[in-house]
């Protein structure tokens, strides 16, 4: 692996430890806050790939594609667990599923055309909005009575699918606050978001794999825009810690945790904007 050959053993061990810690943090937060692990994985991979000197033209694509692939197992596990608990809303999923899939398809098509800078800008903008929502939303939101009509719901589903694919995140980060706002009970919103995460991550990861198949300047151990080294280290850590995060949720000040995570997202967003200007 020539890309890593110029680094010492201690540096390589530090890289491996960083990827494992990324998986642990992503799993814990996914369990505790109901957010997809991708919202953590993408910025960390982006900065690690920067340290490795990976070409800026493929850096963000690799971070997004690897993130989408890494959240496939956790989204499936989470969706099955919510299904067993009766936290899925079949009617809601039927209404959202077609437009979410269309959004994923559009996101995949765009990801093959957009530059790394534009992908970075998309992530930075949405991450900042998510951070503001987490930091300042009141504990009790007065929800709407129901989702808007057919075309409004289609627009919501398409936006969730498309933006989540371009950002490399599961559907929960965007779908949970949106569904909750429109009156879906929180447990059902989280369960439905987990199911949508499965629908988004599998075709999304395949799209990035195909789009990057002939890309230049990819690091070793990459299949298209999916890096297998990051995948191999992040996935086991995430799988082992998601359940632990769910158990910790009952003993943690969720509001304070949301504020800390919001600060992390805001800082990440600002750093990405600075990188774009650099």
**Average predicted local confidence, pLDDT:** 83
Q: What does the main sheet amount to?
A: 2 strands, antiparallel
Count of DSSP H/I helices:
10
Structural class: mainly alpha
Indicate the radius of gyration in whole angstroms. Answer: 18 Å
Work out the strand percent.
under 5%
Read across the widest sheet, the strand sequence of neighbours is 1-2
Report how far apart the termini are. 29 Å
Tally of individual domains: 1
**How much helix, percentage-wise, in residues?**
over 70%
Shape: globular
Number of DSSP strand runs: 2
Q: Unreliable runs, pLDDT <50, ≥5 residues?
A: none
Descriptive overview:
By secondary structure, the chain is mainly α. The chain has one domain. Strands 1-2 form a two-stranded antiparallel ribbon. Strand 1 (222-223) and strand 2 (226-227) form a beta hairpin. The longest helix is centred in the first third of the chain and has 29 residues, at 56-84. The protein contains 10 helices and 2 strands. The radius of gyration is 18 Å and the shape is globular. It is 76% helix and 1% strand. It has helices spanning 9-33, 38-51, 56-84, 90-111, 116-136, 150-167, 172-181, 186-211, 228-249, 254-277, and strands spanning 222-223, 226-227.
